[in-house]
Amino acid sequence: MEEQDKLLKRISDLVLDMDEEGIVDAVREYLDADFDPEVAVLDGLVDGMNRAGELFAEEEYYVTDLLFCADTFELGMEILQPILMERVDTRADLPKVVIGTVEGDTHDIGKNLCHIMLEAGGFEVIDLGKDVPLQNFIDEAVAQDAHLIGLSALMTTTMGGMRRVIELLEEQGLRQQIKVMIGGSPVSQAFCDEIGADGYSENAFECVELAKRLTHHTELESK
Fold first, then answer.
1. Exposure pattern of 105-136 as b/e (b: 16+ CB <10 Å)?
2. What is the DSSP letter of 93?
3. Over the stretch 100-132, which tens digit does the pLDDT of each residue have?
4. Same structural domain for residues 51 and 156?
5. Element containing residue 179 per DSSP (H, E)
6. In this structure, what CATH number is given to the domain that contains residue 136?
7. pLDDT tens digit string along 74-95?
8. 150: burial class by Cβ within 10 Å (0-12, 13-18, 19+)?
9. How many domains does the chain have?
10. pTM of the full predicted structure?
């Protein structure tokens, strides 16, 4: 475990240092050592982005620094994603989830990671992208016969869109049929409870387990 921990710390540091060349070598070295790729994502790449976010909050990093960190993160994910996707279930009857970043919010790193992990966890993912008009989530869920919507927000100013989606579902008589899970750095369990969402996940790995619980409950309710 000591070797794995060292490699994870190195991957995290490389993201923080915006070292695009180094991240490729480090992730490949990690995989060559036969360590779990999912752990590399959460404890390596995501950890590095979280640290960069903290420096940004402390005004030690600028927006351009965060963008370069994100580019480094994406290079690491390009190597890990094909391996994670090998675990995807290819059955035709996979549970469907519609995901996206709410209207007004153009941040999508966390949402993209959830997309990858949900597919690896056995879901068919309909990804609407970022800055998604709120009604579009509902329209797509109905069109795709999806019983779960996943909403992401990375800014406090766009979190209200999550509340509005739930209100729209209620107004259109769909709230009992479609469950809503939320996530993103400014989001919390308290906010989830406040707006009446069905679940909150702190990271992409918890997102998969939450989605499994919510879709299972939906299946039971429909019987």
1. bebbbbbbbbbbbbbbbbbbbbbbebebebee
2. T
3. 999 999 888 788 878 877 887 788 999 999 999
4. no
5. strand 179-183
6. 3.40.50.280
7. 899 899 988 887 765 555 567 9
8. buried
9. 2
10. 0.68
